[in-house]
Design a protein that fits this description.
alpha+beta, single chain, 18 helices, Beta-Lactamase, 21 strands
């Protein structure tokens, strides 16, 4: 069957189809040419918006980076605190063991009668039990070892008399001999040496000693313990850390005692002075010389450091060392820069995408406005020329021309307002969308999905699917919660923009207004262990706005119920009112016996977005709204007094006749 005509009686034309396809391209080409002609005006209008967009995205990136890096800083601080705790605990153990052995009655008897058998047996038992002391020695007042117990091959052994050594020239001996009873000497943490040779395998050793005196007060030498510090260093190196943090321990000269790279340790003993923090990180070391603790950032990452000493700056503890400065160690926690960069890359990508989207929207809007303005100017110029010609040719068309000009101007204005309305609607929609929370929840769901894809490839397990479904449920709940919270914020913003002309003003008794308001809140009090007491005189009559007053009272009582009793079994909220002596004002107090408000929060309590329960849904707008309604609409004042642990009192001072219509 041959092709017939279409329903309109004409056959389809291939040329017509090509023409229809070319029309969008032609319109786009014409629009580009028109925009090129007004490029100067377009750029002048676009630049301020583009600068503002870039600034906002930069501030957003800075803020989100700080929020994203906060867990890293907390992890650094936790690791530093754990390390300082380990050092403090081991220091306490060493001093306790030293004093325990020095005050042993068996040692006191041996100092008097010279019988060392009982002391040797007790020291061997102590060394076997503890397992952390390489040597336990009594060196007499001449510097000669009198008794030494070595810990060798997992057991304590008493050294023969002919193997005992003369230690009179060792610094730890003559410095300890200058101390008084009960005072303690700490040596530098180094590698143990025997006969001027570093012992292999390396034995990190800390020597702690105290002087010995017999019952007559005569100096009888010193008692010294050689602590196997490898136990302490291994404990520090095995502490769990997140984010790939690195833990360093350096001495007072900056030499590594513990480093992620074992080759850098003990540089001062092994002839490697370049293996020291002052050489590799001079700026960090200079900062550490100025402060005992703090943070430092450079191109290598984020550093957190703290200083530990057995006396820890305590004058009384320093007295126990006889004024001899004990060793000082610097604990350093390092977050490498590549970890920080990895945390920031995701935020930077999102901020760039948002900036591109906003710039695209602004460019489109600016182009429409500029083109509309250009067309309007061109139209007005043509109309003016035509008007001049028509005025000289035909005066009768003057009125029609004026109407045409007015109509043209109105159309241009309507087009501009329509474009502006679309932009405002879009911006309002974006503002009502909690981008931050939604992006985080969505990112979590995306990662869970990627993990599920991997499991699908390897063979999906039921537990993996259940875990994925749980993550999806939690992500959906978080997104719904944040969207609901954004909607609540919008409602509160609308309440802040209250219009006086739309609020009812009438005469009413304060007692009735309070009862109407508390009728809503009594349900919350019935489901809680707290009580509500009112003391409102029946003769207080106001000519004011009962709605905003009820809103204010509801916010104040609800704030007390939410924040005043976090850990209290039961509490009381009391509302009282009285007429002030001047006769034209009343005073309403809302008082609770709860935990009170901290002084640093009290001066900012009426500021917007100030809340201590943001993680539990608080917006920080309730008290700000109450203060706004009281001062701006009711014509009064709202103040607060609080003592931590004794409760809080909000005081409303209101005129009997509110300012405004009818005042």
């Amino acid at each position: 069957m041959a092709d017939g005509p279409d329903l309109n009686g004409t056959a389809p034309s291939p040329a017509a189809g090509r023409t229809r396809r070319r029309r969008p391209l032609r319109r786009l080409w014409r629009t580009g040419l028109r925009l090129w002609r007004v490029r100067r005006a377009f750029l002048l209008n676009l630049l301020p918006w583009a600068a503002a967009t870039v600034l906002i995205c930069a501030l957003t990136y800075d803020r989100l980076s700080a929020v994203r890096l906060e867990p890293l800083r907390l992890a650094q601080n936790d690791l530093a605190v754990q390390g300082m705790t380990v050092l403090s605990r081991w220091s306490g153990f060493l001093k306790r063991d030293l004093m325990f052995l020095a005050r042993d009655p068996a040692l006191a008897r041996a100092l008097s009668n010279g019988d060392l058998g009982e002391v040797a047996a007790r020291w061997q038992s102590f060394a076997d039990t503890s397992g952390i002391y390489d040597k336990i020695r009594w060196i007499d007042e001449t510097g000669q070892e009198r008794l030494r117990v070595n810990f060798e091959d997992g057991r304590a052994v008493q050294v023969r008399t002919d193997k005992l050594q003369d230690k009179r020239h060792r610094p730890f001996f003559f410095e300890t001999m200058t101390l008084h009873p009960g005072q303690v000497y700490y040596s530098r943490l180094d590698l143990n040496s025997e006969n001027d040779q570093i012992e292999l395998p390396y034995k990190p050793t800390l020597r702690i000693a105290t002087p010995l005196y017999d019952s007559k007060g005569n100096a009888r030498g010193i008692l010294t313990l050689n602590f196997l510090a490898k136990v302490l260093l291994e404990r520090l190196g095995q502490m769990p850390s997140s984010f790939g943090l690195e833990l360093h321990l350096v001495d007072h000269e900056g030499y590594w005692l513990l480093s992620p790279d074992p080759q850098q340790a003990w540089g001062f003993m092994l002839g490697h002075p370049e293996h020291a923090l002052p050489r590799s990180q001079p700026a960090l070391w200079q900062t550490m010389q100025l402060r005992t603790s703090g943070q430092f950032a450079d191109a290598g990452g984020l550093w957190l450091f703290d200083t530990y000493s057995p006396v820890d700056g305590d004058p009384a503890a320093l007295l126990e060392t006889g004024g001899i400065t004990p060793p000082t160690w610097r604990l350093v926690v390092h977050a490498p820069q590549d970890i920080i960069d990895e945390l920031r890359q995701g935020i930077l990508l999102r901020c760039v995408l948002i900036a591109i989207l906003l710039l695209g929207m602004i460019s489109l809007f600016t182009a429409r406005v500029v083109l509309a303005t250009h067309e309007r100017n061109q139209a007005l110029a043509r109309l003016r020329r035509r008007s001049d010609e028509l005025n000289t040719a035909n005066a009768s068309l003057s009125d029609a021309l004026e109407r045409q000009q007015a109509m043209q101007t109105e159309l241009v204005r309507a087009e501009k307002l329509s474009s502006l309305g679309l932009l405002v609607a879009g911006v309002a929609h974006e503002l009502n969308t909690p981008i931050g929370a939604a992006v985080v929840a969505n990112s979590t769901l995306e990662k869970a999905r990627e993990a599920l894809d991997q499991e699908l490839a390897a063979g999906l397990r039921r537990s993996t699917l259940a875990e994925f479904l749980a993550q999806v449920a939690e992500g959906s709940r978080m997104i719904g919660h944040n969207l609901g919270r954004a909607a609540g914020l919008i409602r509160l913003f609308k309440q802040l923009a209250v219009d006086r002309a739309s609020v009812e003003r009438r005469s009413f008794t304060l007692a009735d207004a309070v009862d109407d308001t508390l009728h809503i809140l009594r349900t919350r009090f019935k489901t809680s262990p707290h009580s509500l007491v009112t003391d409102i005189p029946a003769d207080l009559i106001l000519e004011s706005y009962p709605g905003p007053l009820g809103q204010t009272l509801e916010n104040l009582v609800g704030n007390a119920l939410t924040h005043a009793f976090p850990n209290q079994g039961s509490g009381e909220v009391r509302i009282a009112a009285r007429r002030l002596p001047d006769g034209g004002q009343i005073e309403v107090t809302i008082r609770d016996n709860g935990t009170g408000i901290a002084p640093d929060q009290l001066e900012r309590i009426f500021d917007p977005f100030v809340t201590t329960r943001r993680s539990q849904g608080g917006t920080g707008l309730g008290l700000h709204l109450a203060h706004h309604l009281t001062t701006e609409l009711l014509g009064g004042s709202l103040t607060v007094t609080s003592v931590p642990g004794q409760g809080t009192c909000f005081t409303l001072t209101l005129p009997l006749r509110a300012p405004g219509n009818g005042a």
